[in-house]
């Protein structure tokens, strides 16, 4: 930046110097021409007065200046005297411009330019009392010739101007850049800055504040992720350790022969149950990790939500009967685009929780409908409900409202976390409504771009009429 400023200032300085020099030379040339004209007129008046008093012979007696040419023309226009050329060799001068003007007005001026010699001749003629005309001529050098005569002082002035421009440009560039270089990017508004730079300084300050906020957010997010990672690791270790301890204990009793023969089938069954818990836990961890990896693509197809609800209800019908819970489907023909595997896992986790945390004689309803151009999937139960202080955390990994009750009925503690991340991958909105002792409703709303009407033949109730089915 300083180098660019230096050359800009230096270029401007030299351009100004060249313009000033040209104007000065032009003014000098004009002044020189004016002085030459004035001197030529005065000498013509003096010489004319001498010729009128002493006669034409005065011209032969006086010495001629080297830079002047004196000519005397009689009333008829014949040349009586010429200081440079033989008068007999000259033609009649009555047609000359300055001679005609002198006879008409008493004095006359003329200029003649020689392109060959690059000179200009000034002629001043004065009418004498006897009708004769006295003319004095001189040669004025062209501007280039005048410059050639002044080349040495001009060269000295140019050298001095060049050195001065270099020094001043360098100093000025340094002085201009110094406040810019002195700006503290951490605290740009502190210190003296140019008024022209204040918008830039304000913008830098705003960006610094934004960057600090983003860094704070990133730091907090990093700490949160680190805390979640530690909690997840601890929870996974704990969840894995419990069934492994049981499996190891029962297996050791059987291996050492300590278990009674009649207890071996019971121990083997417990080992199978704990192994099943391990398989479920590992499967949920893998599923959750896959959903959290945003670069992992989902295999998406067109999915019928009412068919998905009925299929889910069939899968959990036996579990519902064992818990004495009725399972119903109320679904209209709604189609969406998404991952059938992930949506099935999400709906299955919601249905599993609705059955497990219900009460004998309770009810679970799976609903699929289209509202305002958006597919809506709902799982509602009449179970024990969730306290208000726990509702915001139930979608966290391994979070359980009642840990003792949760372990008694099984489960990995990752079901709702899978629902949360699966909804995020599909751009869905998740809402939860629950009242302790009355039940819970979880609603999944698909974005409009993933929703499409499955068909027009919806039965007697029209395309959007729900189909009520009790499994």
Structure characterization notes:
- 53% of the residues lie in helices and 19% in strands.
- By secondary structure, it is of the alpha+beta class.
- It has a six-stranded mixed beta sheet.
- It is rod-shaped.
- Mean pLDDT is 79; it is low at 454-471.
Note the quaternary state here: single chain
Number of contiguous helices: 13
Major beta sheet summary:
6 strands, mixed
Indicate the overall shape: rod-shaped
| Strand order in the largest sheet | 11-12-10-9-7-14
Q: What is the H/E string?
A: HHEEHEEEHHHHEHHEEHEEHHHEEEE
Record field, number of beta strands? 14
Helix-and-strand structural type: alpha+beta
Write down the overall mean pLDDT: 79
Spans of at least 5 consecutive residues with low confidence: 454-471
Helix content: 40-55%
| Amino-to-carboxy terminus distance | 79 Å
| Rg over CA atoms | 56 Å
The proportion of residues in beta strands is: 15-25%
């Amino acid at each position: 930046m300083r180098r660019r400023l230096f050359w800009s200032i230096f270029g401007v300085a030299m351009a100004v110097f060249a313009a000033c020099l040209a104007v000065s030379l032009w003014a000098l040339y004009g002044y020189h021409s004016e002085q030459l004209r004035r001197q030529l007129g005065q000498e013509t008046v003096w010489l004319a007065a001498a010729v009128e008093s002493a006669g034409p012979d005065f011209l032969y007696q006086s010495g001629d200046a080297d830079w002047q040419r004196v000519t005397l023309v009689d009333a008829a226009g014949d040349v009586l005297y010429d200081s440079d050329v033989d008068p007999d060799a000259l033609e009649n001068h009555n047609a000359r411009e300055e001679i005609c003007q002198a006879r008409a007005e008493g004095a006359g001026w003329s200029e003649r330019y020689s392109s060959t010699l690059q000179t200009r001749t000034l002629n001043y003629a004065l009418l004498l009392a006897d009708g004769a005309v006295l003319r004095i001529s001189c040669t004025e050098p062209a501007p280039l010739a005048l410059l050639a005569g002044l080349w040495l002082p001009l060269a000295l002035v140019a050298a001095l101007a060049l050195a001065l421009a270099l020094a001043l440009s360098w100093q000025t560039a340094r002085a201009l850049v110094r406040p810019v270089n002195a700006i503290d990017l951490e605290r740009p508004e502190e210190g003296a800055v140019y008024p022209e730079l204040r918008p830039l300084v304000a913008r830098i300050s705003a960006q610094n504040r934004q960057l600090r906020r983003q860094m704070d957010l990133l730091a907090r997010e990093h700490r949160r992720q680190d805390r979640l990672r530690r909690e997840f690791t601890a929870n996974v270790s704990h969840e894995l350790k419990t069934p492994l301890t049981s499996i190891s204990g029962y297996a050791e009793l059987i291996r050492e022969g300590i278990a009674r023969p009649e207890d071996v089938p019971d121990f083997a069954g417990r080992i199978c149950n704990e192994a099943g818990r391990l398989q479920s836990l590992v499967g949920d961890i893998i599923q959750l990790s896959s959903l959290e990896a945003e670069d992992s693509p989902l295999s998406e197809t067109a999915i019928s939500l009412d068919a998905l609800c009925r299929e889910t209800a069939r899968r959990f019908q036996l579990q519902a009967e064992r818990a004495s819970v009725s399972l119903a489907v109320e679904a209209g023909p709604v189609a969406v685009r998404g991952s059938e595997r992930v949506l099935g896992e999400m709906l299955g986790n919601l249905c599993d929780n609705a059955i497990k945390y219900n009460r004998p004689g309770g009810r679970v309803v799976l609903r699929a409908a289209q509202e305002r151009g958006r597919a809506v999937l709902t799982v509602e139960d009449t179970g024990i409900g969730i306290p208000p202080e726990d509702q915001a955390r139930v979608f966290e990994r391994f979070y359980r409202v009642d840990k003792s009750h949760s372990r008694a009925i099984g489960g990995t503690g990752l079901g709702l976390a899978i629902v949360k991340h699966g909804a995020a991958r599909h751009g869905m909105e998740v809402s939860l409504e629950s009242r302790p002792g009355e039940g819970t409703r979880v609603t999944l709303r698909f974005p409009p771009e993933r929703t499409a009407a499955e068909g027009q033949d919806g039965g007697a109730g029209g395309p959007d009429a729900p189909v009520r089915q009790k499994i």
